[in-house]
């Protein structure tokens, strides 16, 4: 059972047939298309707020004219994205194309680069901190209607990126297959031989990165020193306990990955499907992280991409995030305004004690260390 409250204290962190888009040379671009203009004369792909469209109604009109939105790396069970996508599509009549739901943050960037100029390129990104901050040049600045409601530490001042939701790193385990996990150190015991999985390569995935950081903190490391986390995974590999399989709901439910290091909201989802599944947020190693939301500057559906952002940061979108077990970035402001869904917010984890949230500089240094040492440690 999780017995911990997410209290953000510092800069936010960390937390998947191609048709070429072409226009006839003699035909001017339509308003609302990637190459068109808004009613106010601003290029759709350069619109920095709904005001550039002439207001929210005009933005909705332009997005509906595009008719589609491409998202990537949004598993239905991750942060309630299945319900969020459905709610957005139902509300606006826009088809949402969800590609590579189990992709990593780096896979999202790779897809955008590989599919640039094609109708299937991602319109929006949902990224871990290290990947997001390494690729800000690919983002289109945009300020949603609730932008001023979002604390400064959780957004780029120009709207290039905005944190959307956060959670805690945790250890999920099937108590019908392994002894209860009470600490990170338990994972080195023989009872967990071949059973411990990490969600993603920490050099590419936000969840994997934060998982190694959580372990590092438990071993006396910190956001400034992730080496003890890498050393622990090396020991885990030598003991035969590390399972080099990316966990998914399918691997958990089949019993292939009975112990999973992942975000608390993802592990908690499995509690509804696997009777013996339990979740531990180590109180001596509480690591929190936010994910980064951004618009692809080369989005094939730029109006729909901007409407998607508006939806995510609206009260409706933020409450849908909370229903998925994550803490939405506007949580405190919505609580003060009385617009939260009390049932969803009441189920969020509660932590009483120090919480590690690495800064950008700490994440960059840790990312470099992982790039140089992770493969050697678990190879």
From TrEMBL:
Biased composition (Polar residues): 99-118
Keyword 4Fe-4S: no
Top-level taxon of the source organism: Bacteria
N-terminal signal peptide: 1-27
Signal found in the keyword field: yes
GO cellular component: outer membrane-bounded periplasmic space
Ranges where the record places region Disordered: 99-121
GO molecular function terms noted in the UniProt entry: thiamine binding; thiamine pyrophosphate binding
GO annotation, biological process: thiamine transport
Keywords for the protein's UniProt record, in alphabetical order: Signal
Record-linked SUPFAM superfamilies: Periplasmic binding protein-like II
Record's protein name: ABC transporter substrate-binding protein
Source organism of this protein record: Mycolicibacterium wolinskyi
